[in-house]
Task: inverse folding
């Protein structure tokens, strides 16, 4: 790699390495444990991450490669989506699946580290920049991994890489409302959050009474719907901020409601 690498790719590598260390101690039987995320097992979460990591690399290589993948997704509509992902991974499971994911994610990080951040890449919805694509992989890895950390009763290693998810969460403020057919209220709340390193950072423009303060990790848990806002210590001020936190969604797809209070937490 050259010295001019995309930081988001290195942050993705950091998040994956932390999850890798957590999973390395598990037995094959452990991978079958269901989590609080829709009762997906640890194995199903890891398989989902691996399949879409592979898709992200295809999208970086070019529209034809990615189009072929999406055609295979479309052709599998008779299958349960998790069954498609299992088939796409040649039925790998347990520690064999862990090895496949472990061997692939560094290659994905390397490829995006060298990519033009502004290059357009295709995806299931609208195209996006390469920087946005690897940030989405970082966000999805971090958020899905939360269910695994919770199931295993473990805390994450602190990493300021979550700042990428904070920015993504803030940037999808308007989309959260528009996705539900609502007009995004103005002004957009300002965020004043404490990163895992202890640094306090402001995100967005000053917005008067519209403000959210607290842990950056907890904010990320809310916008990725790993936690209900009621299960955090975030200080939410202003009507716009309260409406947003009640339905925040920084990921693509149709509107989804946050988990009910108390249903997703560390064992």
Result:
């Amino acid at each position: 790699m050259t010295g001019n690498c995309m930081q988001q790719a290195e942050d993705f590598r950091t998040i994956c390495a932390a999850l890798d260390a957590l999973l390395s101690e598990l037995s094959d039987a452990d991978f079958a444990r269901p989590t609080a995320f829709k009762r997906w097992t640890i194995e199903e979460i890891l398989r989902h991450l691996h399949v879409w990591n592979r898709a992200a690399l295809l999208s970086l290589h070019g529209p034809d490669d990615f189009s072929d993948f999406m055609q295979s997704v479309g052709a599998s509509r008779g299958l349960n989506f998790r069954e498609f992902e299992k088939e796409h991974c040649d039925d790998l499971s347990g520690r064999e699946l862990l090895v496949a994911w472990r061997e692939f994610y560094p290659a994905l990080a390397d490829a995006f580290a060298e990519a033009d951040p502004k290059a357009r890449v295709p995806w299931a919805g609208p195209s996006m920049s390469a920087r946005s694509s690897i940030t989405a992989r970082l966000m999805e890895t971090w958020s899905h991994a939360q269910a695994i950390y919770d199931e295993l009763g473990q805390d994450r290693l602190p990493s300021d890489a979550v700042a990428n998810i904070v920015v993504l969460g803030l940037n999808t403020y308007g989309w959260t409302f528009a996705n539900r057919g609502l007009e995004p209220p103005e002004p957009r709340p300002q965020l004043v959050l404490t990163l895992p390193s202890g640094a306090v950072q402001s995100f967005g423009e000053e917005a008067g009474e519209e403000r959210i303060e607290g842990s950056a990790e907890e904010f990320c848990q809310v916008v990725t719907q790993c936690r209900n806002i009621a299960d955090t210590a975030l200080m939410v001020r202003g009507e716009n901020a309260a409406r947003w936190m009640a339905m925040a969604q920084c990921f693509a797809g149709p509107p989804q409601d946050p988990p009910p209070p108390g249903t997703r937490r560390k064992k």
User: Anything to note?
Assistant: The chain has ten helices and six strands. The beta strands are 120-121, 128-129, 190-194, 200-203, 211-215, 235-237. The two ends are 40 Å apart (CA to CA). The first helix runs from residue 7 to 23.
